[in-house]
């Protein structure tokens, strides 16, 4: 059995990254990726089961970074359940947004693939599931805090906009400085809404 030539791994990865960045998941092909890398399609399939498998591998570091922060962020909010302090809750939202913005710029190219080039892939479905999970997580937190019914659809729309902010930052190619400035403007409006919601459910 022939040994896999690992010297080709980086060439294939770079070629795939360039192909997906230029054409997106749907229009990219294994053959074009192989041509860019100067290898045969078989060399690509030796390493990846499918185009989707290859695409997923390119955003794995970003996903790992998000997963690593999920528990600390959840713990941060859980510790605020008893206090029901509106200012502390708003501060937690700001901290969470900063964490994710830092991750976005740390894995900038991967995030472009994830948010802007993934349509048609299993990652695209994952984006939708992440939005749904974040919505349910937020609603459950609010229910626990308020002991009352919360509008799931309304919260879903709010959380969907949060993902849309990150997508716009990537699509418009903002620098981190510009992105932080924009998010501060967004926070001015969004925080007023969160404050009103928190104060109403805590009455």
Straight-line N-to-C gap: 71 Å
Number of helices: 10
| Global structural class | mainly alpha
> What string gives the helices and strands in order?
HHHHHHHHHH
Helix percentage? over 70%
Look at the structure and give the mean pLDDT: 89
Low-confidence region ranges: none
Question: Rounded to an integer, what's the Rg over CA atoms?
Answer: 20 Å
* Global shape: elongated
Number of strands: 0
The major beta sheet can be summarized as: none
Approximately what portion of the residues adopt beta-strand conformation? under 5%
Tell me the number of structural domains. Answer: 2
Describe the structure.
This protein has 203 residues and is mostly helical. The chain has 2 domains: 6-57, Arc Repressor Mutant, subunit A, CATH 1.10.10.60; 59-201. The chain has 10 helices and no strands. The chain has helices at residues 9-27, 30-37, 41-47, 51-58, 60-78, 86-106, 108-116, 122-146, 152-171, 176-201. Helix 1 (9-27) crosses helix 4 and helix 7 packs across helix 9. The longest helix has 26 residues, at 176-201. The relative contact order is 0.10. Residues 29-48 bind DNA.
């Amino acid at each position: 059995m022939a040994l896999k030539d690992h010297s080709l791994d980086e060439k294939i990865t770079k070629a795939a990254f360039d192909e997906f960045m230029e054409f997106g998941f749907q229009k990219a092909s294994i053959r074009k990726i192989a041509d860019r890398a100067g290898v045969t399609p078989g060399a690509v399939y030796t390493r990846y089961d499918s185009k989707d498998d290859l695409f997923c591998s390119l955003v794995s570091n970003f996903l790992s970074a998000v997963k690593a922060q999920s528990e600390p962020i959840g713990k941060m909010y859980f510790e605020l359940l008893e206090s029901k302090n509106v200012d502390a809750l708003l501060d937690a939202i700001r901290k969470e947004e900063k964490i994710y913005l830092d991750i976005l710029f740390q894995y900038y190219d991967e995030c472009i693939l994830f948010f802007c080039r993934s349509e048609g892939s299993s990652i695209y479905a994952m984006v939708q599931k992440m939005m749904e999970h974040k919505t349910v997580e937020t609603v459950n937190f609010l229910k626990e805090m308020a002991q009352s019914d919360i509008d799931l659809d309304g919260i879903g729309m709010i959380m969907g906009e949060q993902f849309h902010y990150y997508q716009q930052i990537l699509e418009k190619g903002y620098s981190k400085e510009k992105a932080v400035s924009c998010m501060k403007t967004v926070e001015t409006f969004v925080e007023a809404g969160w404050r009103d919601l928190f104060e109403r459910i805590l009455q």
